[in-house]
């Protein structure tokens, strides 16, 4: 059975415990935590999640996206951010930490004829991921590399490109995730791409074609879900999207019903 989760910032509530209770009532299995300031919330999070049916799934955000920046201090700060959140994910028993290497255009110089920008980025990023995968292995969690779409990044836009990095790293604690919104732009066949990437896939994000709640756009989820079922996907699929419904909790309930119907 596929498991659905939701980012904590999308859930109404004054405390994490209240949000988890509301997610459980709405039909969700997990929660995706925001990485900003998470180090100061570990005890609160642990207490709220203890014996709760809604499980702590993943950490998203709170990491500088400067992994392939020309400034060494920015690159090292990005690795430090990811290291901190991986250690927290391990401490809390979570699946892993989501991150992207860069938003926007290249920032590194073109070193032709020795290196073009993409080759240089791949080599730098691979070395960083080797370091982070070792941290994840020690912590008992996973690095989750997220491809974005062409309008948000020039680097790592498809599942295949993300898998290339994972293969370069060669550590089983380095994985990828698939975002249905980004895949709807970059993948010719979402279901086929998920099947191909299955050995390396550990998490998914859900959003419709308009980046709103699934069910409010025209993305076809059923075949993608069927592919995930077929390959025995055991991770979470977390909402990362807008919720235009005035009653936010009602919107989440309707979305959960829609997603479960697509899985049926």
Please explain how this structure is put together.
The chain has 264 residues and is of the alpha/beta class. It has a single domain, classed as TIM Barrel, CATH 3.20.20.150. It has helices at 16-26, 42-49, 72-91, 117-139, 159-169, 180-186, 190-197, 222-230, 248-263; strands at 3-7, 30-34, 55-60, 96-99, 142-145, 174-179, 201-206, 236-239. Helix 1 packs across helix 9, helix 3 runs parallel beside helix 4 (117-139) and helix 7 (190-197) runs parallel beside helix 8 (222-230).
Mass-distribution shape: globular
Specify the helix fraction band: 40-55%
Q: Give, in order, the helices and strands.
A: EHEHEHEHEHEHHEHEH
| Name of the CATH superfamily | Divalent-metal-dependent TIM barrel enzymes
CATH architecture: Alpha-Beta Barrel
Average pLDDT score: 97
Number of domains: 1
What are the salient characteristics of this protein?
alpha/beta, TIM Barrel, 8-stranded parallel barrel, 9 helices, 43% helix, 264 residues
List the topology elements.
Elements: E1 3-7, H1 16-26, E2 30-34, H2 42-49, E3 55-60, H3 72-91, E4 96-99, H4 117-139, E5 142-145, H5 159-169, E6 174-179, H6 180-186, H7 190-197, E7 201-206, H8 222-230, E8 236-239, H9 248-263
Parallel strand pairs: 1-2, 1-8, 2-3, 3-4, 4-5, 5-6, 6-7, 7-8
